[in-house]
Amino acid sequence: MTKTVLFNLTDKEREEFVVKMGQPKFRAKQISEWLMRGVPDFMSMKNLPENLRKDLDSMAQTLPVRIVKKLESADGQTTKFLLELNDCERIECVLMRTSYGNSVCVSSQAGCAMGCKFCASTLLGLKRNLTINEIFAQILVAQWELRNDRMSEKAIKPNGDANNNDVSHIVIMGTGEPLQNTENVIGFMERANNEMGISWRRITVSTCGIVPGIQRLIEWGRPINLAISLHAPTDDLRKQIMPIANKYTISEIMDAAWRFTDTHNRQLMIEYILLGDSDGNLLNATPECAEKLSELVRDKNCMVNLIPWNAVDERKFTSPSGNAVHRFQDILIKNGIHTRIRRERGTDIGSACGQLRLNNQKNN
Ligand code: SF4
Q: How far, in Å, is the centroid of ligand 1 from the Cα of 218?
């Protein structure tokens, strides 16, 4: 029997559901409150009678995702989840506990069609877009984990106003290209803001440069953060590692991105993975690339995140040496560019983005 996913129902439908079970309407409200805490099962709903919990367990499920695997980094600050959807597709999401708050990186698609040569998420192609509920449920999984932290006194105290140990930041940077699923991603952000109170300024959408999608975000008009996964400073080099470069030029992408940031007075994030080729020669991490990248962003409100490549077994790139990474950064700094080196958090738990999902698809 297919179980009803209670999170997928509207409030009214949830009420009808419990009334059909012979229960008073207020049970629906209790269940809704549990769902918004990310409860994974009915037995944890302690304010419901035990018989009701058992009945619910036999005919329904709480969220449209279930945890297949949970990995924790050695420092305990990063938790990576492998989640299964109801059609058995799998996705990843990552909870990062930081001094400024609790950030969740969510997936927007099962797989990805973009074919970036350095990425594990695209190796099995695109399976499908995620629904709004499936994206939202990833936040709730993290929210329940944070609740468990509080119970075990593991919670770290963030600085500033984000000291409530709830999810405070969202990055849509997991598996998939968010702007290939734009309307569901927008619907998800609206709900995260309305229903969880997550500020627009703490939500980041990362795209490989889908120009019409950036235009849609401008029309939507919310002051979120935009990140562009650029990874090369020239169209020729970009075409070697990102097929999307055959569709949109860097100039078209940057024009759209600056229009977005000018509209909202936001700082643009540039994501730049530093790669060497299979022989260990620098590919996009040469001093010339650093100079060209500087020209693209000079005098703009922009932060360049440099990301040393995380090995993906199936991909034949290499990671530049620490010296090469710092030399690249030094050139940006000399040119007046805001930049930082971002080490992927939790690299000890499934390494690069998409790797956990890939390994587990292959093993099944
Ligand atoms: S880097 Fe992003 S857009 Fe490119 S293949 Fe991976 S998930 Fe898709």
A: 22
CATH value at residue 19: 1.10.150.530
Closest CA to 282 of 292, 290, 270: 290
Same-domain pairing of 25 and 100: no
**244 vs 166: CA distance, rounded Å:** 36
Which residue minimizes the CA distance to atom 6 of ligand 1? 119
- The sign of the torsion formed by the CA atoms of 285, 105, 228, 175 equals positive
Nearest-5° Cα angle at 155, 191 to 152:
110
The label of the residue with tokens 């009915």 reads 42
Does residue 225 contact residue 267 with C-beta atoms inside 8 Å? Answer: yes
pLDDT tens-digit series, residues 198-217: 999 999 999 999 999 999 99
Q: Give the chain's domain count.
A: 2
In this structure, the residue with its CA closest to atom 3 of ligand 1 is 177
Cα(83)–Cα(231) distance, rounded to whole angstroms?
28
Residue 240: predicted pLDDT: 96
The reported pTM is 0.93
Pairwise pLDDT comparison (251 vs 310), residue with the higher score: 251
Domain check: are 125 and 259 in the same one? yes
- Nearest atom (ligand 1) to Cα of 112: 8
Using CA atoms, how far residue 333 sits from 274, 293, 303, in Å, is: 16, 12, 11
**3 state DSSP class of 303:** strand
3-state helix, strand, coil in the chain (%, to 5): 40, 20, 40
Calculate how far, in angstroms, residue 206's C-alpha sits from the geometric centre of ligand 1: 10
Cβ pair 141, 93 in contact under 8 A: yes
Distance 61 CA to ligand 1 centre (A): 31
Partnered with residue 244 across adjacent β-strands are none
Residue 288 burial (10 A CB sphere; 0-12, 13-18, 19+): exposed
Domain that holds residue 53: 4-61
- Catalytic residue, from 93, 105, 289, 353: name it: 353
- Structural contact between residues 358 and 120, judged by C-beta atoms closer than 8 angstroms: yes
